[in-house]
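Design a sequence for this backbone.
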């Protein structure tokens, strides 16, 4: 299973992030590419406890939902709604300048996945408390999901 804790897996994600640009077109969903980049940044900020996000109501117990999302070998489904704090058109960060927003997202990914952290992980709005290992898996899966959304 790929994870940001693995140097090669992380390098792949960083390389793929560098392939999206202002002209990248979505394959599904409502976000445009600039909103997606800001969404990735906001999600990392939530994970690092720098952007508050309340818990999202879900049907399954959090531990079951988390296990399915992080441990099964399937790609995440399209159309799962995010929390408003990470949605650019609602309560998330609005896009400004694409190149700067992308650099910010890459910097947050680096900080999030660094072995020496200057933050403590918060609870995930859907999955609840997570281990470092689970956060690194989530970081890879979440970023991969949105890069695939834009063909990267």
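Sequence:
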């Amino acid at each position: 299973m790929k994870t940001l804790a693995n140097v090669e897996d992380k390098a792949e994600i960083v390389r793929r992030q560098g392939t999206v640009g202002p002209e990248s077109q979505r394959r599904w969903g409502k976000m445009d590419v600039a909103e997606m980049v800001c969404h990735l940044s906001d999600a990392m900020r939530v994970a690092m406890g720098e952007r508050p996000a309340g818990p999202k109501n879900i049907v399954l117990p959090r531990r079951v939902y988390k296990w399915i999302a992080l441990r099964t070998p399937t790609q995440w489904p399209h159309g799962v709604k995010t929390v408003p704090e990470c949605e650019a058109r609602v309560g998330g960060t609005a896009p400004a300048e694409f190149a700067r927003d992308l650099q910010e997202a890459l910097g947050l990914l680096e900080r999030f996945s660094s072995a020496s952290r200057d933050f403590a992980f918060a609870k995930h709005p859907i999955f609840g408390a997570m281990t470092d290992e689970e956060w690194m898996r989530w970081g890879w899966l979440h970023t991969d999901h949105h890069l695939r959304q834009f063909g990267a």
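The two ends are 19 Å apart (CA to CA).
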